[in-house]
Amino acid sequence: MLDHVNIGILTSGGDCPGLNAVIRGAVMKGDRIYGVNFQGIRDGFRGLVEDDIRPLPRHDVRGLSRTGGTILGTSRIGPFGEGGGGSARVKQVMERNEMDAIIAIGGEGTLTVARMLHDDGIKVVGVPKTIDNDLSATDYTFGFDTAVSIATESIDRLRTTAESHHRCMVVEVMGRHVGWIALHAGLASGAHAILIPEQPVSMEQICGWVESALDRGRAPLVVVAEGFMPDGAEIVRDALDGFGRPRLGGVGEWLGPIIEQRTDIETRVMTLGHLQRGGVPTSYDRVLATRFGLAAIDAVMDSKWGHMVSLRGIDIETVPLSEGTADLKSVPQSRWDEAAVLFG
How far apart are CA 126 and CA 128, in angstroms? Predict the structure, then answer.
């Protein structure tokens, strides 16, 4: 165990409900139990590249578990991008600020950068964060429950107007290349079709489910993940994010007119977008994020460099960062088959 530590904390990538709870958990335990100091790195890895760092005392994290967003700010800027300076620049900034280690809170892109920094000798511990729930090394990530809850409530509200007008409603949710949000929100809201990247579904089948629901006197509801690939083609926007990945979105707008044309059922489309990442976290996410923060500071003090905290069952463990970023956690066939019984 380290005797004295000055820890930097950053939140990188897309914002997510529960980030502040992680920060609070780590700082509270670090101060109370270990007596260490913390530094807040502003806007993710940008703060490490541009030396934008400030003290993060315990006073600053009071009451944060219920607060959405992140007090540290976030970005998709990475040290290995153009002009970032790589590990050499990160080491230089850490040395200048007498920073001994980093807790990096983020999703697949952030944890991949953290692994690369570790490979270059930088002391780093990861905390998995993503509303998409797509990291294979942890059963759940905080933010996912909140995103599903927001999507479910939004869909419930949309269904009342759809039923009043006897319309079909297509609702696009986030998730990137996995369908966890769509699956859970679709099941919770009683969707008549759930479309996810893991399962190819023909337009004939989609329209069949829509017509079946209408024939039973229901207003058809289709929940589609942004990464769903109609006819095997990914729908993307003409832009890349800070990690060089295509920005998904628009599949709902693509599907709506085709459903209306083929079924002659008036169809409306709603893209929930960043609503799913905003607002206060659910109680489940507050607890999980706090536990992750508490475990992260333990991992730092135990010198578990190159590891991330992980939820396995109901227990918090640590696993290598390489394991956390090796594969996407896709929706398995069994979960799809379970849900598909209810379609149409």
Answer: 6
Please indicate, yes or no, if residue 340 is contained in any of the structural domains: no
One domain for residues 188 and 297 = no
CATH number, position 219: 3.40.50.460
69 and 21 Cβ atoms separated by less than 8 Å: no
Give the structural domain span for 295: 6-130+281-324
Which residues are paired to 317 by β-bridges?
A: 310
Give the residue among 178, 170, 218, 220 at the shortest CA–CA distance from 199.
178
Alpha carbons within 13 A on the beta-carbon side of 182: 33
Say if 214 falls within a structural domain.
yes
Q: Please state the separation of Cα 250 from the chain's center in Å.
A: 19
Number of independent structural domains in the chain? 2
Average pLDDT, the chain: 92
Per the annotation, where are the binding residues for ATP? 14, 76-77, 107-110
- Rounded CA separation 13/154 (Å): 25
Per-residue pLDDT tens digits for 123-148: 999 999 999 999 989 999 999 999 99
Residue positions annotated with a catalytic role: 132
Which of 16-30, 247-261, 280-294 is least confident? 247-261
Q: Are 300 and 118 in contact (CB under 8 A)?
A: no
Amino acid 14: pLDDT: 86
Residue stretches of the annotated binding site:
14, 76-77, 107-110, 130-132, 167, 174-176, 226, 268, 274-277
pTM of the model: 0.92
Structural element, H or E, at residue 269? strand 267-271
> Do residues 99 and 174 both lie within one domain?
no
* pLDDT-above-90 percentage for the chain: 81
Extract the annotated binding site for substrate: 130-132, 167, 174-176, 226, 268, 274-277
Q: At 177, list the tokens.
A: 């290349």
User: Bridge partners of 142?
Assistant: 129
Please indicate, yes or no, if residue 120 is contained in any of the structural domains. Answer: yes
- Please report the pLDDT score of residue 44 as a whole number: 95
User: Residue 11: which of 40, 52, 35 has the closest Cα?
Assistant: 40
- Phi and psi at 173, nearest 5°, equal -120, 170
* Within a domain: 89: yes
